[in-house]
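Supplementary Methods. Inverse-folding protocol.

Structures were first reduced to a discrete structure-token string of length 342. This string, shown here, constituted the complete conditioning input.
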């Protein structure tokens, strides 16, 4: 009898322990499932990271696509909504309503690095460099890896003719994101310092990037190595006519050229970029005494749509005038080319 009683008590204790263990395990599983249900899906997190990365390097079109894709799947995702708002602000930076809109949003979140960066861009474009500088500095204090803030800050120093500080700052941008545009901008800074060998070396790091090839050609104009200049321009045109190469994100970005402290020319379409490249090659051939070849390259423009001929003429005229100032031997040819073709 005692044996049966003892056995019963033992079984009861074991059952209780098993029940407790089951409750603990079951509760833990439910807790895990609850937390998982609250957390964003892994794919969603990845999209947000990609969107932020695109913003950090100034790829606003890519960022817009990413945030829109996320909002299609998760319309209430606040991070994606905020990222899309940054993109929309950037796209309106030249519009009259931009300043009013960003001031309103800035009051809600003055510690956002992208808002500070956009305000820096706005004031720098407006020619108010002194007001722009603190915004760039604030953006970088909030996000020391914000590559596009380093890039724009380098442009600020470049406009102040402080090329050495501009170079160091652009190297910070490249360290954060070694993309072709930043390397091209560093090459431009070397160009302005007349450190031509270093500029060509920097341009040469950009493979399948037509703008850097054309910039190398301009340096070879200065050095009077005209055949080398035309070789780089032929290469740029080959890349520009390759749809796979031009579909790369870096080749869909606009090309910006400053023609005065307050004015710049933007080449945003592949057609505009091709026109600029054909003109550069035409100039090289003309400077080599090949007038027929120069005219032949310009005949190819008839198949392209040039909507802003005045801007193109200003850009090319500026490059030719700079060449004539630096190389007196080209003065007569530059004057003749401008009269014939611009």
């Amino acid at each position: 009898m005692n044996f049966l009683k003892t056995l019963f008590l033992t079984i009861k204790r074991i059952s209780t322990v098993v029940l407790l263990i089951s409750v603990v395990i079951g509760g833990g599983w439910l807790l895990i499932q609850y937390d998982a249900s609250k957390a964003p899906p892994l794919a969603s997190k990845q999209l947000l990271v990609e969107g932020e990365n695109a913003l950090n390097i100034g790829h606003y079109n890519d960022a817009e696509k990413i945030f829109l894709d996320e909002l299609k799947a998760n319309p209430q995702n606040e991070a994606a909504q905020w990222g899309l708002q940054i993109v929309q602000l950037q796209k309106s930076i030249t519009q009259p309503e931009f300043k009013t809109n960003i001031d309103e949003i800035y009051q809600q979140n003055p510690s956002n690095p992208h808002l500070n960066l956009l305000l820096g861009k706005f004031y720098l474009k407006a020619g108010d460099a002194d007001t722009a500088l603190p915004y760039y500095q604030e953006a970088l204090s909030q996000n020391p890896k914000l590559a596009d803030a380093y890039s724009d800050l380098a442009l600020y120093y470049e406009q102040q003719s402080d090329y050495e500080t501009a170079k160091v700052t652009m190297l910070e941008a490249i360290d954060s994101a070694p993309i072709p545009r930043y390397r091209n901008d560093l090459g431009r800074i070397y160009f302005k310092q007349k450190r031509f060998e270093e500029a060509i070396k920097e341009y040469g790091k950009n493979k399948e990037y037509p703008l850097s090839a054309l910039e190398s050609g301009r340096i070879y104009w200065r050095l009077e190595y005209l055949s080398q200049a035309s070789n780089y321009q032929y290469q740029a045109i080959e890349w520009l006519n390759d749809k796979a190469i031009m579909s790369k994100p870096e080749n869909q970005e606009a090309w910006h050229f400053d023609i005065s402290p307050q004015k710049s020319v933007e080449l945003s379409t592949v057609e505009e970029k091709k026109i600029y490249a054909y003109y550069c090659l035409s100039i090289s051939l003309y400077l080599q005494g090949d007038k027929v070849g120069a005219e032949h390259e310009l005949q190819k423009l008839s198949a392209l749509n040039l909507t802003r001929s005045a801007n193109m003429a200003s850009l090319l005229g500026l490059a030719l005038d700079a060449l004539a100032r630096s190389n007196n031997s080209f003065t007569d040819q530059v004057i003749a080319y401008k009269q014939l073709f611009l």
